[in-house]
């Protein structure tokens, strides 16, 4: 293959705003999840406002930031006055608690699917084993419960074996027996569907992947030829044992490169949301014979994968499977994904709607109680204004509210990452 008809090693990285916007919402959700875990660890799942600031620093929040963050999401968190102690408390709303219960129920119902995903994950490795800690770190992506070591691994001894390595003192998960019926890649299923529904030529689609380049990606004449040749290049299946092949030839190296694309493609299809951080993919690099420079390797195939650096000042790299998404949402959503996205929906709901809902509830209860609730609400807003500014002062109960007592704007303290992009993308507006 000549230089003019080979896929360039260094590609101009083009930003896809649909995936970046997805990660901006995910950034807010990750912060909300930290507070949720904090509340659920407390007695009666509620926390005094006076302790909120000190405890929030343990989960990475700055001083006086917790109060402003709580008031930004009234559909997730609510502040109330304790009827006996007469001090302010904060807790999760009924909608947030319902979302947590729905996600837990979905997590338990899909344990059989989680067992299959772990079995396929082990089949992707060279030795049929993987470190327990690496799976524990990525358990949310694979849809595993927190107690997966018992509920998934130890509870299914016919599939898995858990043992301690003598040389490294690490726990490993090992498959008991390889099931050939599970050794079918997701891309092979897609190819068969394309062949049956659209009547695509079998020779053209036999080794091809679905390629959707991001908007603004420049595709030249020679690049099209290189992609066409790469699509028809044979490769070894990720589930195939390649220990007996000679890897010294140039043809074998090209097949191994394409096998690496198929390996990461299959790994992403095993996740619940068809995405995973680049750092967690790197945990499986040695076990799956993935290339060393993963980021550069994935950027060669921007039509198959997309790497987003949004969400943590450019320090977090999230790899999306492009063919699984359309307009910022999964094409084939599952029950666990829908339950998780419901929390993002609560975070994006307008704070004004929460205020209107409270007024309607108070109206049904009666006018006198409405006045009392209005006074308590002003007391809450004034108290958080004091916490947010880091000042102590006198609070007046019953003060008339005009909507300016709390900052309900959906601005993020991390918006500086939108202006100062550290990943070197060429943005296409």
Automatic annotation (TrEMBL):
Residues 408-429 have a biased composition (Acidic residues). This is PORR domain-containing protein. Residues 14-350 form the PORR domain. InterPro entries: PORR_domain, PORR_fam. Keywords: Coiled coil. It holds the Pfam family PORR. Residues 90-117 form a coiled coil. The keyword DNA-binding does not apply. It comes from the Eukaryota. The keyword Coiled coil applies. Residues 389-429 are annotated as: Disordered.
